[in-house]
Write a structure and sequence with these properties.
By secondary structure, the protein is of the alpha/beta class. Helix content is 38%, strand content 24%. The chain folds into two domains: 5-60 and 383-417, Urease, subunit C, domain 1, CATH 2.30.40.10; 62-366, TIM Barrel (Alpha-Beta Barrel), CATH 3.20.20. The chain contains 15 helices and 19 strands. Strands 3-2-1-4-16-17-18-19 form an eight-stranded mixed β-sheet. Strands 5, 6, 7, 10 and 11 form a five-stranded parallel β-sheet that branches. Strands 12-13-14-15 form a four-stranded parallel β-sheet. Strand 8 (164-167) and strand 9 (173-175) form a beta hairpin. The chain is globular, with a radius of gyration of 21 Å.
Length: 458
């Protein structure tokens, strides 16, 4: 049987070029099965499906390099305007971790999956086709939902040895202990159940939570396990002042130096945030080929600067993630640019072409995927179309600048993953959107009610 053939015609098509990109006008991209088979200006007469968006720009699907999908719905309207003056890590240790821990106890699997459907629908409709998401092992339902919805997902169940238990009177985090051997055994069970191999849509990634919550022995075990299973590693690093102080007190080094000493650096490692990394730390990340996932909007909401440009200027492979607030990837890329311009006081840095490359090709490269993040013959058909036709997006002189600086999620009309159309005309094709929203909202409401009963201040 011949693979399904889809022809996509848009006003603009973004392909790799001598700079970050080249833009073709009025081209047609042909998909056969899950692969881009041709890019042509000729009339295409034969296809099983024709997709045409008159003022559309066809781009690679976005690669969300660091995310916590469960947090988006559960923290909406709570983490916003949160007072962090007591401690730089208070949001993490007083709210995020306790609420996440509560969700693993007494929350039904049905509710967990309902929340994930709501979050992943939000991401999908903003043009995200691939995401790297960290979660507690009890939340492996993330992978079930991603598989069900057709998304390309890299799931990173936490492994941890000293989980945060709250904060002390000085606002510093306190820690408990768990059995590291059990943690690794649970990871292996999830890996062998879900991981689909190098070319699969569903991958399982080692997710040591952070430098302060994992012992040196656990981190060394993570490294040996990654080598054995050919698995990626992702970890939070240098994300808060308390973490930096704790690592300095425990080991006499910075969090990045600690990662280097335990082997958690290299081309198979994605370090999230790195906001408090020193210039010397960034040199370590660059020289070891370690990637950084920059999530500027999370920190901007907290009054902190996390400029994408700082990492890029150090020659680090840098992707962009939405972390756990909102999942409009177009807004996140724009924020990466604006925060960088404010930090450097230079208007030309973090330009539209750089940001689009960071959100597509560079993110894919961090995942070890040369077949994602690019529109070229032989690449996987993970694509999005953004309609530039509305009044606020016209006229168009430079379509990539209009894309980055003016569009938002509702402008995304079509999303394709692995050759399958998952969003058409701005609507999901495989689910009832109202039902997903209603079920997810109800599930979050039940979690909020339990949190208040347990004394978590929302």
């Amino acid at each position: 049987m011949k693979p399904r053939r889809t022809a996509i015609r848009t006003r603009y098509t973004v392909i790799p070029g001598t700079g970050p990109h080249q833009v073709l006008r009025d081209a047609t991209v042909i998909i056969e099965g899950n692969t881009i088979a041709a890019i042509t200006h000729e009339v295409v007469a034969r296809a099983d499906e024709f997709i045409s968006v008159e003022e559309g720009i066809l781009i690679p699907g976005f690669v969300n390099l660091h995310n916590h999908a469960l947090n988006g719905p559960t923290l909406k309207g709570i983490a916003d305007d949160y007072d962090r003056t007591g401690s730089a890590g208070s949001l993490i240790y007083k709210l995020l971790m306790p609420l996440g821990d509560l969700s693993t106890h007494g929350t039904s699997e049905e509710d967990i999956q309902a929340i994930y459907r709501l979050a992943l629908l939000d991401m999908l409709k903003s043009g995200t086709t691939t995401m790297l998401d960290m979660w507690r092992p009890a939340h492996r339902g993330f992978l079930d939902v991603a598989r069900e919805m057709g998304l390309r997902a890299y799931g990173a169940p936490y492994v941890i040895s000293t989980p945060p238990t709250g904060v002390d009177g000085l606002g510093l985090p306190t820690y408990g202990t768990v059995d590291e051997t059990v943690e690794m055994a649970v990871f292996r069970s999830i890996f062998h159940e879900y991981d689909q191999g190098a070319s699969g849509r569903i991958r399982v990634v080692l997710g040591p939570h952070g430098t302060d919550t994992c012992s040196p022995d656990l981190l060394k075990t993570v490294r040996s396990t990654a080598n054995e299973l050919d698995a990626l590693i992702t970890i939070h690093a240098a994300q808060s002042k308390p973490e930096v102080a704790i690592i300095k007190d425990r080991y006499g080094v910075t969090p990045i130096e600690h990662l280097q000493g335990t082997g958690i650096v290299g081309p198979d490692v994605i370090a999230a945030h790195c906001v408090y990394a020193t210039d010397a730390d960034l040199g370590i990340l660059r020289d070891t080929g370690t990637a950084v996932a920059s999530c500027p909007l999370t920190f901007a909401r907290g009054g902190l600067s996390a400029p994408y440009q700082r990492f890029a200027d150090h020659g680090i492979r840098t992707g962009i993630g939405t972390d756990g607030y909102g999942f409009d990837y177009l807004e996140e890329m724009r924020s990466a640019g604006l925060v960088s311009k404010l930090r450097t006081q230079q208007s030309h840095v973090a330009n539209a072409g750089q940001l689009l490359k960071a959100g597509t090709e560079d993110g894919a490269a961090a995942l070890g995927r040369s077949d994602l993040g690019r529109i070229e013959v032989g690449a996987r058909a993970d694509l999005s179309i953004v309609d530039l036709g509305r009044a606020g997006l016209q006229p168009v002189r430079d379509p990539i600048k209009n894309l980055i600086w003016y569009t938002c999620a509702p402008d995304v009309t079509t999303v394709i993953v692995d050759g399958h159309v998952l969003v058409s005309g701005g609507k999901p094709t495989g689910m009832d959107e109202k039902t997903v929203i209603s079920a997810g909202t109800d599930a979050v409401g039940r979690l909020w009610e339990r949190a208040e009963q347990h004394g978590i201040q929302l």
